[in-house]
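Lab notebook, bench 4. Still working through the backlog of constructs that have no structural model yet. Next entry is a single chain of 383 residues. Request: give me the structure tokens for it.
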Amino acid sequence: MGKYLNNTKREFQRCVNCVMDTTDSKIVFDENGVCDFCNDYKTNILPHWNPSDDNPELEIVSEKIRKAGKGKKYDCIIGLSGGVDSSYLCYIAKTIMKLRPLVFVVDTGWNLNVAVKNIEKVVKKLNLDIYTEVVNWDEMKDLQLAFFKSQVPYQDLPQDHAIFAALYNYAVKNGIKYVLTGANNATECIRPPVEWVYQNDITLIKDIHKKFGKIKLKTFPLCGMIKYRLFYPYIKGMRRVAPLNLIDFDYDKVKAFLQEYFGWQSYENKHYENIFTRFYEGYYLPYKFGYDKRKCYLTNMILTGGMTRDEALKELETSPYSFDLIQEDKEYIAKRLGISTDEFETLINGENKTFEDYKNSFKIIQFGTRVLRSLSIEKKKFR
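Model written out:
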């Protein structure tokens, strides 16, 4: 049993400034009871983040992208999930930055109909071209079932990897230099602890599939850290840009705008546009491991002024989603994975494990992230 499994008997403590607590076994508190997430935000993120509605840097970045894409059909590419961040990014890119983006959608087989409709509304309203890559379902299913058999917390890693790998691979293959990402400090400056949500580790993915998978991953999108962090940007010239960090991004106001402008439909929680992710974050992680990712999202909102600590604590008292829907999702996911609900229950209740129980590149990734932080390329805390 690895050191990154939260199995230590530690006295419960919660940060006095946010809602992160000792369910993250590596959390550190200073003498005032403030956690390392809050202190890291204050020291390493806030000083470098100056969003505003009239930020001149946005036009500088826009001009670079337009210049690089001159003579091409598209000057950038945007991965659209139908969620708040990516939907608003499409609006900013087309109407404010005056870009010609290609919308890229990855169908992993789990999106809710509301997400599909949101994507359609955004694309139609902005008159954007869209390309959809459909992940081979047999391969997707086989890899996800292998991950459940592995007993690790990070069940959304196969799906997340497929989405980002497909996007980056397509951009490089088709000569689209700029990848616009909806990542932003306003809602995502708090990186979940590595024991909750592991990193993009292709070594881990391949080892788990080798041990528990049944078919070859012939077409499944793959893109390791070295490829997208080093080879793609420094050899192929791919650039990732996060425009939402340059503007005043108020989450609640943005949601209201999307609803009015696009007829966009909201979700119960962040990332709940996807059935698998809803079940993974809302039930699997809290039930099996005691990890509630809402603590990260809510802490982010507290630090960026989106809500108070008391409001966040009150929200944490509620269930992520209803018991009836949990049971419905559990049965649906089991059926889609080709196993019975009883077999699925047995997997969920198996012996908990971590990435340390399998081949991984954690030390290499950790070292690389520290180097990037020292060069001010990476701001978020990693541990």
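Notes after review: The mean pLDDT is 91. The first helix runs from residue 36 to 45. Flag for follow-up if needed.
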